[in-house]
Design a protein that fits this description.
Elements lengths: L7 E5 L4 H12 L3 E6 L2 H9 L7 E6 L5 H15 L4 E4 L14 H30 L6 E6 L12 H23 L4 E8 L5 H12 L6 H11 L8 H12 L10 E4 L7
Parallel strand pairs: 1-2, 1-4, 2-3, 4-5, 5-6, 6-7
Helix pairs in contact: 1-8, 3-4, 4-5
C-alpha cells in the first residue's frame, strides 16, 4: 500500500494483536522491522510465522518501562542499521476497575506501562531518529498507539483513560517541540476503538467478572450495536493506518489524532 523500502522501524508490544499486525504490515511495505516485546517466547514464535514479502523482521526482548532496555535496543539498532525512521509505541495494558476501587498503585502501574514507557522510548530514540531524518525526504515518524479512551471516558477504565489521555497530550507537546527544534520528526497518535484482540477480550471478560456486563456474548453484541459500522475492528484496520503514518504520504502530519473506531465516538 505504501512504500517503506529502506526504512527501519521499531514496534513495541509486537508479540500479538495490533503490534504483531503492524510489524507484518510495515515489513510487507518494505521496511526492516525490529519487533520488540517483553514476552520474548511468544514474540519469536509469532514473527517466525510471518510472511514478509519485501522487508524483514528481527525480534528483540524489551521491557518498555526500563530505560536500560531502551538504551540497549536503540544502541543495537544503531550498530546494525545506523538509522531509525519509524518508532511505534504500541505496548500497553488495560486495568479494569471502578474508580473508587482503583488503588494508587494501579494508577501508577498504568502510567508506568502506558505513559512513562512512551516518554522513555521517544527520548531515547529521537537522537538516532534525528540523525536519520536529516537524510530523509519523508523525515522520521513516531506513532503512539493511544485509544478512544484517551478521548472519551469508559466504564471501569479510570486508570487506563488517565494514562491514554496523558499519551494524547504528550504526543502533541512532543510534536511541537520536535518540529520547532528542526528535527524533521513527526509525532502522531492512533486511537483504536473496539478491536478484536486478546487485550480487548480480556478486558471484556473482567467486566463480566465485575458484574458490569451480563455475559461476553451480550457485551460483544453491545459493541456492534453501538458502532455505526456495525462490527468489531480487526487488527489490519489499525495496521493500515500505522503504515500510512510511517510513510511519506503523511509527511505533513504532526500532532494529529487518527481515530479508528468504526464511528463509535461520533454518536
Amino acid at each position: 500500500m505504501f512504500d517503506l523500502t529502506g526504512k527501519v522501524a521499531l514496534v513495541t508490544g509486537s508479540a500479538r494483536g495490533i503490534g504483531l499486525a503492524a510489524t507484518s504490515a510495515l515489513a510487507n511495505s518494505g521496511a526492516k522491522v525490529i519487533a520488540a516485546d517483553l514476552d520474548a517466547d511468544t514474540l519469536f514464535k509469532e514473527i517466525e510465522s510471518l510472511d514478509t514479502e519485501s522487508g524483514s523482521v528481527i525480534g528483540l526482548e524489551l521491557d518498555v518501562t526500563s530505560s536500560k532496555d531502551w538504551s540497549f535496543a536503540i544502541s543495537e539498532i544503531e550498530k546494525e542499521y545506523n538509522r531509525l525512521d519509524v518508532l511505534v509505541n504500541n505496548a500497553g495494558f488495560m486495568h479494569c476497575g471502578h474508580f473508587l476501587e482503583t488503588s494508587l498503585d494501579d494508577f501508577r502501574r498504568s502510567m508506568n506501562v502506558n505513559f512513562e514507557s512512551v516518554v522513555i522510548g521517544m527520548q531515547t530514540a529521537v537522537p538516532l531518529m534525528t540523525k536519520t531524518s536529516n537524510d530523509s525526504k519523508d523525515g522520521g515518524s513516531i506513532i503512539n498507539i493511544c485509544s478512544i479512551y484517551g478521548q472519551v471516558a469508559g466504564d471501569f477504565s479510570a486508570a487506563y483513560c488517565a494514562s491514554k489521555g496523558a499519551v494524547r497530550l504528550l504526543t502533541k507537546a512532543a510534536a511541537l517541540d520536535l518540529a520547532r527544534g528542526g528535527t524533521n520528526i513527526r509525532v502522531n497518535t492512533v486511537h483504536p476503538g473496539a478491536v478484536n484482540t486478546d487485550l480487548a477480550r480480556s478486558f471484556q471478560s473482567r467486566m463480566v467478572e465485575n458484574g458490569v456486563l451480563a455475559e461476553e456474548e451480550a457485551a460483544s453484541e453491545m459493541v456492534v450495536a453501538s458502532t455505526p459500522l456495525a462490527r468489531w475492528g480487526e487488527v489490519d484496520d489499525i495496521s493500515g493506518v500505522i503504515t500510512f503514518l510511517a510513510s511519506g504520504a503523511s509527511k505533513f502530519m504532526t500532532g494529529s489524532e487518527v481515530t479508528v473506531d468504526g464511528g463509535l465516538t461520533i454518536v
